[in-house]
Design a protein that fits this description.
The structure holds 3 protein chains of 3 kinds.
Chain A (H helix, E strand, L loop, with lengths): L6 E3 H7 L5 E6 L8 H9 L3 E10 L6 H18 L4 E7 L5 H12 L4 E5 L5 H14 L4 E7 L3 E2 L5 E4 L3 E2 L14 E5 L7 H6 L7 E6 L4 H17 L8 E3 L4 H11 L7 E5 L3 H14 L4 E2 L2 E4 L4 E2 L3 E2 L2 E2 L1 E8 L2 E2 L2
Parallel strand pairs in A: 2-3, 2-5, 3-4, 5-6, 10-11, 10-13, 11-12
Antiparallel strand pairs in A: 1-19, 6-19, 7-16, 8-15, 9-14, 17-18, 19-20
Helix pairs in contact in A: 1-2, 5-9, 8-9
Chain B lengths: L2 H15 L5 H17 L14 H9 L5 H10 L4 E3 L1 H24 L8 H10 L1 E5 L6 H7 L11 H7 L2 H7 L8 E9 L3 H11 L6 E10 H13 L3 E3 L3 E3 L15 H18 L17 E3 L9 H4 L16
Parallel strand pairs in B: 1-7, 2-3, 3-4, 4-5, 4-6
Chain C lengths: L18 H7 L17 E4 L6 H6 L3 H9 L13 E7 L17 H31 L5 H7 L5 H13 L13 H19 L19 H12 L8 E7 L1 H6 L7 H14 L6 E6 L1 H6 L17 E4 H6 L1 H5 L2 H16 L8 H8 L5 H9 L4 H8 L7 H13 L1 H17 L18 H18 L9 H8 L3 H18 L16 H19 L5 H21 L10 E5 H6 L1 H12 L3 E6 L9 E6 L4 H4 L10 E2 L2 H14 L8 H7 L6
Helix pairs in contact in C: 1-3, 4-7, 4-8, 4-10, 6-8, 14-15, 16-20, 17-20, 18-19, 19-20, 21-22, 22-23, 23-24, 24-28
The chains are: A alpha/beta, B alpha/beta, C alpha/beta.
């Protein structure tokens, strides 16, 4: 039986690991699922000694008022779930990474060993570097990433006005990067800007695509459409897609291992698409110093998702055991 | 008409639509479908031998009707089709294991995952777990291979066992002193849940009262109610679907408030075409088994819960995804 | 190869294609018009994506130089200008992007002061390192011939002497002390770059020792290195040293770098250009407005000036120049690109130039397009489409209907002419028999109105406009070779789908695409370009904007039965009005920079002589939007308030969720981060 990273419903995962004192990290977004992880954790009754809550500051746009109100509501729910333990830290979404470094350093000096990191409503621009700082520090015995699936997506677009695809913070290439062995793109319902990268003559010769299994025809159509367009733009560069579950961090990581022949060479990653898959790409990139590119939206619609999904009687809140007993589970 | 000629004629027809008002949308759809035919649809087993490529079948399907407006409506329906290819199924087998089965087994391991000795304890629990299909349409072998599970001698489908199985023998085999302690029942596609319920009830009612985990890989929303009711009725039974297709994968016979505009027009189309579709099979219902009206198919076959206009071959109708029916 | 291969399948020819393929596919047509690129002086090369910018800049790369040599193909740059060596930095694909991650000082104000200086130092080291890498590559043993052609010495001794001279220069503030060979220098330079990255990536907690006190001044190290190349004899006196700054506009795209660092970084580069260094010349690839938006030089008064510190080479403007239009420059460029691709794909291609394009894409005359539109239309529809008015004098009605039986285009034009004459009270009693008196046949009057007439006929018949023939394709390409290639690709794909496959027949002849195939391919390409609009920054709103504006203009043009305003599928704004509305100004500049709108300065018809610019949708969108592509006559004159309202509608529109068509709903569920 092969070894696979452990993941599953957070409620069950927390009950399946040795009891310990946890430190929870969340991001206060405008969506209802921003507080789902904290509520599940509180419900399970594990010992959460402290909690950091990031509140992201973004430039004013036409959604600001509505978004701020919803973020306030999230904070209220978070405070109710973590009474007396929640520390709110404001951070510029488009600022430097210093605050994240300070946060991680703070955990280390406060002796926090076991981290629960909720990435559900944390932009990739934030959780990618945060993961890197945390994992590279080697200071934590346990690190569980958490992802909450929404009940459904609203009709409006999530976000607008993306930057062109640029390296994520702390995932920039070296000055004269080695020739890329290949690329891995995780598709989502938006893959903005990859064609631009290709048009400028950039990107590797051979690009593998990770295709999340859709759960409805609309998602299926859109994702295939993106695949077809990428393929059409550069038929000699894209290999037929690899399919995987949008929630299966372990499978994504396993694919990356096999695509790269056990992490040989220098790979170029573009983690669009589902967050659990992105987490797998982040871990691979952290271990092997690979760059990761992403088109960061600059305006977020506060009404983009509704509720929290369910899995049977449970909330669809999943935990991914990334680090256990100080070892990266990969 | 030979196969290549059909593909050509299809392309010409779509190109002739280019001049119509929304004709360019048809062109774009065609480009996508042409790609999907190659990388997605063409592993459809019922049409592999003799080879009947998707694009040729598409020509036959669209030309079931004469007028171009109806052809274009049929063509547009494909935007809403969801199809799972062989590779995607392979992923589903593995995801079923990682995300549904393994956590359930952790519970049975009664050890914490990061405690020493956990791996050995888990392996023992796994060894005493029997993975079986609900019906014979589930490729249980493939599931075993995909997850690199040791092969087992017997893998009966429990829908058949419910009819013919010996409860005593089974209880001896699947129970505290038997070969296995617990049962995982997998199914590739669950529509109404009728077969799943039959199999699950039989298993859960065995004198040995084994723990049962029901894992449909693909299921319609209708099946959820059945699964959850089973889980309530039997304390040792758990229901854990992998992918649940939402209401946009179905066209129901009666209108609902949540219907999207395309579903309304699709309903009309289904009803209008049904006399041609059913042909000589007078008892065939327009919205498929259980009136599910699913727009879903998979590489191994198209479920009978899907719209007959997709899968039914008759004297007056060529199917797009012809179904291999259980006789 | 050949058979059933689409020669345009792989649209993007970049660094990833094998150099031998690059050489075969590279079309030298623009080289002559961008010859400044290979001469002394700073050059800013502007153009949208697909204008040929990237390919031209690639000619400066040593790897491409070597590729031509290996392929035994003459280097497309004239010999007199081919003595150069270059270094470059790709802003997106390098460590430069790390600079926004970490502050060099705790205090924000101090960080803002000092970060650009570190950036400049980093840039200096990276460029010199790349220059050394280029030098070593070009002077490798196997490349001796190229080295000789360029004018470089392969002598290791000479090169080491050069390295020592560079290292000794005081500009390094001692950082390169003791270096005696090129290899040693490379190591030292790389090590400093690594130290920066280590700090910026939070791999080290403090700024490495010595970095702060030995920051080099922007542009100086490259300058002294270039000078030393010639002084030491490594490079001949006439060898130019160029520096490529790729993706300059990326700095502008990162609008959100902390403390406006993006601005500072741009100004550092501007400052370097401002030095007007006689030893090294910079080549910056940028978008037109993005470049002109900020010409300030870091830490200096004044701004860069075109023709003084640099020359701007605007590829779009080159292709639009009258003399180039007269010599059909774009057509010859497109024909050359096509021929190369055909040969590369294995086709036999005996034709070139205009003949090739006309053979591939034979035209359909406008009269025939009109007939095709109305094919199958009944009498009533024909009448409506042509626009016969029962209030007209019967003889005129008859004349129009008579013409309409065989030539609906002529009939539509005639109807419009009648309407115009009636409005002036000048309609003759009966249709003149003499052709010269038939105003609707007069050359320029007719030519200006043919596009609008076809538009109206198609709309009346419930059809889309028909686009066929090389002239239509060139109009749609709008001077952009990438658009041309994508249209050619779609047409070829449409043809491959319907062409009979004859496996035993080695048919390597170039095909000729019939009208149906061309029309289908063009429609598909146009839809694709419309989709692409949404994929760029602010693309969602821009797509809505284009849709809103196009629909307004189309409605007006369809209602204009007298065809008095045949040019109203573009709009014109007075510059001073735009100045009043910075948001609109920025919006229009950006749309033009990314190529979604075409902006042209034009002379006003008004007596006020205010300077104006006219805007058209990107021509490739015309089939999708159902508007003509050729620009004739005057556009619609609007006030800036109108554009403000269009923009507001586009922005507001993105939020609405009710009453949406299915397609729009799907289009909008684009950006999901899960």
């Amino acid at each position: 039986m092969e070894v696979r990273p452990i993941w599953g419903l957070l409620r069950m995962l927390l009950r399946s690991v040795l009891p310990r004192q946890w430190h929870l990290v969340v991001c206060a977004g405008p969506e209802e699922r921003s507080s789902a992880a904290a509520e599940v954790v509180a419900g399970v009754g594990v010992d959460v000694a402290s909690a950091d809550c990031l509140r992201l500051l973004v430039p004013t746009d036409r959604f600001s008022a509505e978004r701020e109100k919803k973020v306030d509501d999230t904070l209220a729910r978070l405070r109710a779930a973590m009474p007396g333990r929640l520390q709110v830290r404001e951070m510029e979404l488009f600022g430097t990474i210093e605050p994240l470094d300070e946060i991680v350093t703070g955990w280390v000096s406060a002796g926090r060993q076991h981290i629960l990191l909720d990435v559900s409503t944390m932009p990739k621009k934030i959780f990618f570097p945060l993961l890197r700082l945390a994992i590279r520090s080697r200071a934590f015995a346990t690190l569980i990433a958490i992802y909450s699936r929404p009940q459904k997506y609203a009709e409006q677009p999530l976000a607008e006005d993306p930057d062109p695809p640029l390296p994520l913070p702390l995932f920039t290439p070296a000055q004269a990067p080695p020739h890329a062995t290949g690329g891995i793109v995780a598709l989502g319902l938006e893959v903005l800007g990859i064609e631009d990268l290709l048009a400028d003559g950039g990107g590797p010769n051979s690009i593998h695509v990770l295709f999340p299994i859709p759960t409805n025809p609309d998602e299926s159509s859109r994702t295939w459409m993106f695949m077809q367009r990428l393929y059409s733009a550069a038929p000699n560069r894209f290999t037929p897609p690899r399919h995987l579950s949008p929630l299966d961090y372990g499978e994504a990581y396993s694919y990356i291992r096999s695509l790269t022949d056990s992490f040989q060479g220098h790979w170029w990653l573009a983690p669009f698409g589902p967050k659990p898959v992105s987490v797998a790409m982040a871990v691979a990139a952290i271990q092997h110093d690979w760059p990761a590119y992403y088109s960061q939206p600059t305006v977020y619609n506060p009404a983009y998702s509704v509720g929290v999904g369910r899995e049977g009687r449970d909330l669809a809140v999943y935990g991914y055991l990334l680090v256990s007993q100080g070892q990266l589970q990969a | 008409m030979e196969i290549e000629a059909k593909s050509r004629r299809l392309a010409e027809m779509i190109q002739s639509w280019a001049g119509e008002e929304d004709g360019n949308a048809d062109l774009a759809r065609y480009t996508l479908i042409e790609y999907l035919a190659k990388y997605h649809f063409d592993d459809y087993e019922p049409c592999l031998a003799p080879p009947q490529p998707f694009m040729a079948r598409l020509w036959d399907w669209l030309t079931n009707v004469q007028d171009s407006a109806t052809r274009r409506s049929l063509f547009a329906l494909l935007d809403h089709l969801i199809y799972f290819n062989r590779n995607q199924f392979h992923t589903l087998y593995r995801t079923a294991f990682s995300s549904r089965i393994r956590p359930w087994l952790f519970d049975h391991t009664r050890q914490l995952v990061d405690a020493p000795g956990f791996e050995a304890a888990f392996d023992q629990v796994l060894a005493r777990t029997w993975f079986c299909p609900v019906t014979d349409s589930m490729r249980i072998n493939a599931f075993y291979h995909a997850n690199r599970l040791s092969n087992v001698r017997y893998r009966p489908d429990w829908y058949s066992l419910a009819k013919f199985g010996d409860e005593q023998k089974l209880s001896a085999y699947l129970g505290p002193g038997g070969e296995y302690e617990r049962l995982v029942l997998l199914e590739d596609f669950v529509g109404t849940g009728r077969q799943m319920r039959t199999a699950a009830e039989f298993a859960a009612n065995l004198p040995s009262a084994p723990a049962v985990l029901l894992v449909p890989l693909l299921s319609l929303g209708d099946a959820a109610a059945v699964g959850e009711a089973l889980a309530l009725a039997f304390p040792r039974l758990s229901y854990a679907p992998v992918v649940v297709l939402d209401s946009t994968s179905q066209i129901r016979p009666t209108a609902a408030a949540s219907d999207l505009p395309w579903q309304v027009s699709a309903r009309e189309l289904v009803e209008e075409l049904h006399p041609r579709v059913k042909g000589e099979r007078v008892s065939l219902m327009p919205f498929g088994y259980g009136d599910c009206g699913a727009l879903a198919s998979m590489y191994s076959n198209t479920p009978n819960n899907s719209l007959p206009l997709l899968h039914h071959d008759s004297l007056t109708w060529n199917a797009l995804l012809p179904r291999t029916a259980r006789v | 190869m050949a058979l059933h291969v689409n020669p345009f399948a792989e649209l993007y020819v970049g660094e990833t294609v094998p150099p031998s393929d690059f050489v075969r596919l590279f079309s030298p047509f623009l080289v002559e018009h961008a010859s400044l690129l290979f001469q002394r002086g700073n050059v800013v090369l502007t153009g949208v994506q697909g204008s040929g910018k990237t390919m031209l800049l690639s000619l400066l790369r040593p790897s491409i130089r070597l590729a031509f040599h290996k392929a035994k193909t003459p280097f497309p740059v004239p010999e007199a200008h081919s003595h150069f060596i270059s270094a470059g930095i790709s802003l997106r694909n390098s460590g430069v992007m790390s600079f926004g991650q970490r502050a060099f000082e705790k205090d924000a104000a101090a960080a803002h002061e000092v970060t650009p200086l570190y950036f400049a130092d980093y840039l200096n080291y990276a460029l010199v390192l790349d220059l050394l890498a280029s030098l070593q590559l070009l002077t490798e043993d196997e490349n001796a011939k190229v080295a000789e052609q360029v004018g470089l010495s392969t002598s290791v001794e000479t090169q080491n002497r050069f390295a020592a001279e560079v290292a000794a220069d005081p500009c390094w503030l001692g950082a390169l002390d003791g270096v005696e060979t090129v290899d040693e220098m490379k190591l030292r330079l790389a090590s400093r770059i690594e130290a920066y990255l280590s700090f910026l990536q939070f791999n080290s907690s403090v700024i490495p020792q010595g970095l702060a006190s030995s920051k080099t001044a922007a542009g100086i190290p490259v300058s002294i290195t270039a000078k030393a190349l010639r002084n030491s004899g490594v490079a001949g006196k006439d060898v130019n040293v160029f520096v490529r700054i790729d993706q300059y506009e990326e700095l502008d795209s990162i609008r959100r770098l902390p403390n406006s660092l993006g601005v500072s970084f741009r100004e550092i580069i501007n400052r370097i250009l401002g030095m007007r260094d006689p030893h090294v010349f910079y080549r910056v690839g940028a978008r037109r407005h993005a470049w002109r938006a900020n010409l300030r030089m870091y830490g200096a008064e004044g701004v860069l000036e075109d023709q003084r510190e640099y020359e701007e080479v605007d590829l779009e403007e080159i292709l639009r120049r009258k003399e180039n239009l007269k010599t059909f420059l774009f057509m010859r460029f497109a024909a050359d690109v096509t021929r190369r691709r055909l040969l590369h794909a294995g086709y036999q291609c005996d034709l070139d130039g205009k003949k090739l394009l006309r053979a591939l894409f034979p035209r359909t005359r406008p009269e025939e397009k009109a007939r095709m539109c109305l094919r199958g239309a009944d009498g009533a529809l024909q009448r409506r489409a042509i626009g016969v008015d029962e209030n007209w004098p019967p003889q005129w009605q008859e004349s129009v209907l008579e013409n309409g039986r065989t030539d609906p285009l002529l009939a539509r034009l005639q109807s419009a002419w009648i309407a115009q004459q009636l409005a002036r009270g000048q309609l003759p009693a009966a249709p003149p028999k003499v052709k010269a008196a038939q105003g609707w046949t007069r050359e320029y009057w007719r030519k200006e109105r043919v596009p609008q007439a076809l538009m109206q006929l198609a709309a009346a018949a419930g059809q889309r406009m028909i686009w066929v023939g090389y002239s239509d394709i060139e109009a749609l390409a709008g001077g952009n070779i990438l658009v041309y290639a994508s249209i050619a690709k779609s047409i070829w794909a449409a043809w491959l789908r319907t062409a009979e496959q004859r496996p035993n027949d080695a048919d390597l002849r170039v095909p000729s695409f019939d009208a149906r195939v061309q029309a289908a391919g063009i429609e598909e390409a146009s839809l694709d370009w419309f989709r692409k609009v949404a994929e760029k920054p602010r693309g969602g709103t821009r797509k809505k904007f284009i849709d809103i504006v196009a629909r307004r203009l189309v409605t007006q043009m369809l209602d204009d039965r007298a065809m008095s305003y045949p040019g109203h599928y573009g709009f014109s704004l007075a510059d001073d009005e735009v100045e009043r509305e910075p948001k609109v100004k920025k919006w229009l500049r950006e749309a033009s920079d990314v190529g979604d709108l075409v902006e042209v300065v034009h002379t006003t018809k008004e007596r006020d002589r205010r300077s104006r610019r006219k805007y058209y949708m990107q021509p490739a969108l015309s089939p999708f939007l159902k508007i003509p592509a050729v620009h004739v006559k005057e556009p619609l004159y609007v006030h800036v308030e109108t554009v403000v309202s269009w923009l507001a509608e586009a922005e507001g529109d993105v939020r609405k969720s009710a009453d949406r068509s299915e397609d729009e709903r799907r289009e909008r569920s684009q950006l999901r981060l899960f």
